[in-house]
Amino acid sequence: MIPAIVVFLYLAIVLYIGIFAFRRAKGKEEAEDYFLASRSLGPFVFLFSLFGTNMTAFAILGSSGHAFSNGIVTFGLMASSSAFVIPLTIFLIGTRVWALGKKYGFMTPVQMFRDRWECGHIGTVIFVVQSVLLVPYIIIGIMGGGTTLYTISGGAVPFWFGGAIVAMVVMSYVFFGGMRGTAWVNTFQTVLFLLFGAIAVLTMLPLSFPDKRAALTAAFLNRFAIGFAIGAAHLSWPGWAVGLTFGLLLSVPDAIITKAWGPIVGMGAAGGVLIGLAVRHWGSLPAAA
């Protein structure tokens, strides 16, 4: 039940960030401030917000289940979208749309297409299409939140209640905070991701290596290999056993070379068990009808 309490505390912090953003807004009555944060987001918040936006229920839970069911092809799917499709879309299309919006005062894609084609109906069609495409994205996020709270609470938090809580929190900080609140929440989430991800690296900093940069790079690749191998493995063992086995097998060679048995094997075993439990649960969920 303690993990569920931690999640609820996290949701409370997220909600407060949205409300705080609403209080900090200088032009609450202006649409530009609500939709675009008065075009005032700096590079740090913008970059971290993009990262946090892509850390969705599919990226965290769905990709694990996809890897469990389909194997190595998940790496190509996630790597291509994260490393090529999204960055190139932002660079080739997003920057041009941003420039047009700033020049002509557009706040939504509907406004831009209406002015570009001088047709009000095309804006209506685009609005409907965007709304329809947004529904599955929202539902997947709510389902992911409900599933997570149900699992980590041992069933104490019902699936429907967990999903409702997540939906209410997100709706609240978006409603009150607008783009500014959403961007700040995503930035907060990204900071947490990077913070906990850096813990594994920081455990190696006090150690002595001839080439520390190469050692840290190898440690990152090793941890990635552990997570990927666990997700792609098709074994009938319990999830924790699969995770522990791969965590130890892929950590021991590095420990033999570096003689740093405690940090490397300990982090590999603990991380492997957690990943194995997560993959076995979310990777074995029945597909929605």
Helix/strand-derived category reads mainly alpha
Instruction: List unreliable stretches of 5+ residues.
Output: 284-289
CA-CA gap between termini: 30 Å
Q: Report the strand count.
A: 0
Present the secondary structure layout.
Blueprint: H1 2-24, H2 31-36, H3 43-54, H4 57-70, H5 73-104, H6 109-117, H7 120-152, H8 159-202, H9 212-232, H10 239-258, H11 261-283
If you had to describe this structure to a student in words, what would you say it looks like?
This protein has helices at about 1-25, 30-35, 45-55, 55-70, 75-105, 110-115, 120-150, 160-200, 210-230, 240-260, 260-285. The longest helix is centred in the middle third of the chain and has 44 residues, at about 160-200. Residues about 285-289 have low confidence and may be disordered. Helix 3 packs across helix 8 (about 160-200) and helix 4 crosses helix 11. It has two domains: about 1-195, no CATH class; about 205-285, no CATH class. The protein is built from eleven helices and no strands. It has about 290 residues and is an all-alpha fold.
